[in-house]
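Entry 14: structure prediction run for Vacuolar cation/proton exchanger. Input pasted below.
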Amino acid sequence: CLSLVEDAAEHAGAIMFAIKDKLMEFDDEAEHRRLFRVETNSPQRKAVFSLEQGGSLPGKTTKNSVIQSFKIVILSNKLNLLLPFGPLAILVHYLTDNKGWFFLLSLLGITPLAERLGYATEQLACYTGPTVGGLLNATFGNVTELIISIIALKNGMIRVVQLTLLGSILSNMLLVLGCSFFCGGIVFSRKQQVFDKGNAVLNSGMLLIAVMSLLFPTLLHYTHSEVHAASSELVLSRSTSCIMLVAYAAYLFFQLKSQPSFLTESEETWDDDEVPEISKWEAIIWLLIFTAWVSLLSGYLVDAIEGASVSWNVPISFISVILLPIVGNAAEHAGAIMFAMKDKLDLSLGVAIGSSIQISMFAVPFCVVISWMMGEQMDLNFQLFETATLFISVIVVAFFLQEGTSNYFKGLMLILSYLIVAASFFVHQDPDQG
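Run finished. Output tokens:
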């Protein structure tokens, strides 16, 4: 007993040193695992791992037969039940003169195509990594709206282009983000979801810059302060569009190269969740097929807008601002809500707000430049009512993002704000089309 008492201090010290050494081993092993996981996210480490294993990257080389690829891409998604409405719409177009039915069937037919475009882009991004994948998503994320806009420009429907792009911005900011906050808040009702406040504030600033670029040509028009009537407004719009394209390129570079937190989360999500179901060439082929099919249906859809407006007795502004963007943003809706329900709000904001920034800072000025090349005169004067609606919506979203937290109440308020916008355009007669 006396020996035990005398050696108690030594025993205690030995035990503490043993525990400390064991904890250090655990820390070293955890750090090793973390470093190994980060390294395996890089293309170089994946290539080395592939060579070491004497084969291809596990889970990254999926080769399917034509029938298997068709089953995965077409038959695995319930939304694809709407695909037959596309051919049916073309059939109705040639058999009847009912523009209302034709427009409705075309909308239903394009909805799954827009979602599948997003799916094919995500599958291709699995093979390119998060950086190139981000560029692919930026290019094809809103390809439906761009196709519709370019076809409308070709037909001289400049006002439809402006309203459709405006509607895409409003839909992503209010409806997509609102649904994400609401669904995420319902799933995680016992806690407050958080996201990167700094990145959210940056995105809000980008949206305000986009509003500023639309506001100045509008103010110039309504204050009648042009140096050269009719031409100054167009010159300002074209020069501003070129500046916006440069700003968007700088924004992409900053997001993809200069923000470690953004890249880290993208790499983790890409490594954990984005396991490809089809091969790289299958993704490219399906991407081309869906883009061609969307282009074909969009041509018919644009031709039927005016007829549908007369048939339904609904303003063209409502069809362009509300109905068309909801169809084009089907993929964004699904993706943003899915990420929010997995408590990955930063990715939800990247989809919703990032898409709004892409439309306002890239698609809008891109269409202005394209119309310039076509000999058309599209400008950034979106009219007073539309510009004011966008400005107020950006302010509302910025206020909800400034705390860096979300819940179902904020989501509900954004959804209700979108319903107010929809009701406003339902009773708004566009001056250029009245």
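Notes: The radius of gyration is 26 Å. Will compare against the previous run tomorrow.
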